[in-house]
């Protein structure tokens, strides 16, 4: 994994004036120095520690305001609690932590810690704390009066104020808070962009699904249309075949009817010839019911003058004629004849 390129930030460092603090430090005797170290740690050495501006510029490029440490790619350059204890000679287990961070400092608490009257604390304590000039004047006054405990407390506050609680540190804190706000805004923007991207991808997926569904529907409708056309074509072909068969059957029926008409004409012609040949024959026809139900008159065996009364010499003819609706009766031979009271007898011999 390659290292990311970082832009160099231009920084300005303001070196505090240390001559007054060095003079106050020199007022501390070795015996009093041990007592001071026991109370506040080895913070007197911070006054005389040389400041390497180039090192500060280099390290500041990797300073992370939200984390308040130097962050590198592979490790973090931040002292541990044990390292702080060794550097300051001040053990945390012997001093409970201050648990009232974030709460406003009351003048009574500050006066008790600095061993100062409440009136002086109220006059000197401003919105950002004590002014350096106020603390230095108070330290010189206490040193002249020989009040060592009060002098040590003011000196420790001056050292902490320059190295730990300086205005530059407050500025860095505000800058870190601003960076946190910017980071939160950038995270919100990134989340919004990610949500929009997900919704866009979901919209594209739904559009693809809708398009595929539409294509499948079009394919189904097309196949159904062609199947319907094929079925209609098959049905029309069957109808045409049925019509052709019906036409053929009707032609056959017409041919049979023509043959029957020819037979009827021949029969009628022969009857006329027989009548002309035998003018003395008497035929009794019932004018009321000369026709049976199928429209065929019955010429049955009759008593005809001049004709033999032999059944083999007489024949029954079924002649189709127009009209007629009365039903007849079927005999044992399958021939139809009129009822006996309405029988039609005609002397007619075989052709």
From TrEMBL:
InterPro entries given in the database record: DUF7745 (IPR056647)
Membrane-spanning residues: 148-165
Coiled coil: 173-202
Entry keyword annotation includes Transmembrane helix: yes
Chain residue ranges for the region called Disordered: 312-351
This protein's record includes keyword Transmembrane helix: yes
Domain DUF7745 residues, every copy: 21-162
Pfam families: DUF7745
Keywords linked to the UniProt accession: Coiled coil, Membrane, Transmembrane, Transmembrane helix
Protein name: DUF7745 domain-containing protein
Organism, scientific name: Pisum sativum (Garden pea)
């Amino acid at each position: 994994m390659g290292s990311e390129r970082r832009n160099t930030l231009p920084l300005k460092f303001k070196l505090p004036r240390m001559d007054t603090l060095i003079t106050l430090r020199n007022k501390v005797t070795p015996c009093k120095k041990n007592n001071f170290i026991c109370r506040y740690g080895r913070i007197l050495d911070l006054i005389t520690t040389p400041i390497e501006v180039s090192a500060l510029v280099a390290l500041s490029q990797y300073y992370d305001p939200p984390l308040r440490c130097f962050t590198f790619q592979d490790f973090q350059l931040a002292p541990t609690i044990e390292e702080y204890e060794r550097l300051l000679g001040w053990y945390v287990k012997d001093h409970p932590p201050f648990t009232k961070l974030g709460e406003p400092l009351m003048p009574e608490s500050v006066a008790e810690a600095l061993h100062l009257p409440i009136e002086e604390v109220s006059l000197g304590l401003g919105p950002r704390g004590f002014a350096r000039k106020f603390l230095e004047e108070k330290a010189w006054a206490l040193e002249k009066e020989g009040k060592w405990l009060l002098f040590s407390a003011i000196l420790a506050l001056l050292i902490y104020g320059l190295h730990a609680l300086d205005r530059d540190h407050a500025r860095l804190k505000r800058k870190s808070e601003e960076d946190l706000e910017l980071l939160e805004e950038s995270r919100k923007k990134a989340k919004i962009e990610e949500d929009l991207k997900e919704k866009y991808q979901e919209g594209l997926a739904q559009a693809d699904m809708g398009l595929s569904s539409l294509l499948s529907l079009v394919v189904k409708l097309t196949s159904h249309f062609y199947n319907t056309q094929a079925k209609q074509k098959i049905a029309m072909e069957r109808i045409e075949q049925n019509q052709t068969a019906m036409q053929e059957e009707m032609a056959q029926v017409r041919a049979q009817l023509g043959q029957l008409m020819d037979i009827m004409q021949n029969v009628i012609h022969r009857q006329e010839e027989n009548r002309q040949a035998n003018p003395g024959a008497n035929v009794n026809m019932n004018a009321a019911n000369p026709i049976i139900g199928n429209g065929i008159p019955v010429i049955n065996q009759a008593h005809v003058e001049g004709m033999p009364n032999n059944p083999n010499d007489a024949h029954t003819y079924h002649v189709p004629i127009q009209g007629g609706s009365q039903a007849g009766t079927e005999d044992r031979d399958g021939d139809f004849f009129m009822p006996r009271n309405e029988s039609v007898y005609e002397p007619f011999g075989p052709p």
